[in-house]
Amino acid sequence: MIRFDNSYARMPQGFFARVDPTPVTAPRLLALNGLLADRLGMDRDALTVEMLAGNAIPDGAAPLAQAYAGHQFGGFVPQLGDGRAVLLGEVVAPDGARFDIQLKGSGPTPFSRRGDGRAWMGPVLREYLVSEFMAAMDVPTTRALAAVATGEQVWREQGGLPGAVLTRVASSHIRVGTFQFFAVRDDRARLQALTDHVIARHYPGADGPLALLDRVVAAQAETIAQWMALGFIHGVMNTDNMAISGETIDYGPCAFMDIYHPDTVFSSIDRQGRYAWANQPNIAVWNLAQFATCLIPLMGAEEAAVEAATASVHRFAPLYQAAWLRRFGAKLGIDGAQHQPLIERLLSMMATQRADFTRVFAGLSDDTAIARDEFTDRAAFDAWARDWQALSPDAGVMAQANPRRIPRNHRVEQAIASAVANDLGPFRRLLEAVTHPREARDDWADLSHAPTTAQLVHQTFCGT
Question: Model pTM?
Fold first, then answer.
């Protein structure tokens, strides 16, 4: 039994198109997140492979594809929408919390723009691994409930690839681009309805559009700081990929840095470095400014509204800086606000000497010698370490802040390749390891190793 109460499906005409998933030929379960099912109050036995593939619609669901617009690499597209995903509905968990259940890769919708609406197995398994790691590290994120192979091929530039469907769970799938869809049409009635819906669902107590903007700015400042502290690069921070809830959404060409450098980019389509690691806070501000622009017509007199909205967006910088110092301070077991120069000194050395981001911080938590081995100038590291150790860093705080392992890009690629060859063993092993990222286990030691030069992944690819 799954308890649905589909508030988004009750929104006015124009918010979505009603559409069912397209059935697939031979669905086969690749992974099921039983603990997440329990959290949602779902009977695991009720989550049949037919339902998770889109071949059967559960009782109480109201399938639809959401409409939205968006800036993609800075260029505005007035209509995007769910082109390869169907929202089954909103599940009400035992504690009353609401979660969207969405099938990604479930076939064409009215928003597919000549696409096939399908996904291939690689990006589905990548999103499963990365989103579940992020959840394990307490980063606000969409979750993976299940992955199902379709038994069909999808055709991409690489040729025919095995198809798959991801069952994604989110607090909601409402984006900055959802607001832009109505703002560009000057549809104030629907903008107001959307604002009221978001406040009721995500930010109860927020008094109107300006208060909503304030809350979203604060939520995004915290989330982006968490990304930065894990060396995470989203890859496509378009406005249609920024969730109003503050959750990380739409894991496409995402990746985690191996060698640290602030200008690191992985996405094969980000040729100008717009969404590089260090630029993510700036892009968040840009996206939030687009969100503010959508809300201004609902905020009364225009001049005063513009002034208030601008001030709200400008609050991102100090909120983010405080969160960044708190996160990186925790990684070193110190008060980041009091010791910012020490943090920056370490990062500067890491960039110059091509140190591995995760291994440096994990090494400082476990064994300083491991961190030291990441540096070519050992004397400079030793001098920094003496200054750091003089502050009596809190080992317990560091243990919580620093994962021993991440979904390394080369390990993710290896797991995908094995899964395509019908061997799910590497995927399952990597999934277990990255969903227990702080745990010390000898049998996972190899998953903590930095890649060799030959194993480095330099590009990840957008789209599913």
Answer: 0.97
